[in-house]
Amino acid sequence: MVDRFTQQTRSRMMSAIRGKDTKPELIVRRILRELSVGYRLHRKDLPGRPDISMSGRRKIIEVRGCFWHRHPGCRFAYEPKSRQDFWQQKFASNVERDKRNDRALRDQGWQTLTVWECETAQVTSLQERIAEFIEVGGHSASGKGRNYPREADETPAG
Ligand SMILES: [Zn+2]
Question: Domains in the chain, ordered, with CATH?
Answer without folding.
Answer: 7-134 (3.40.960.10)
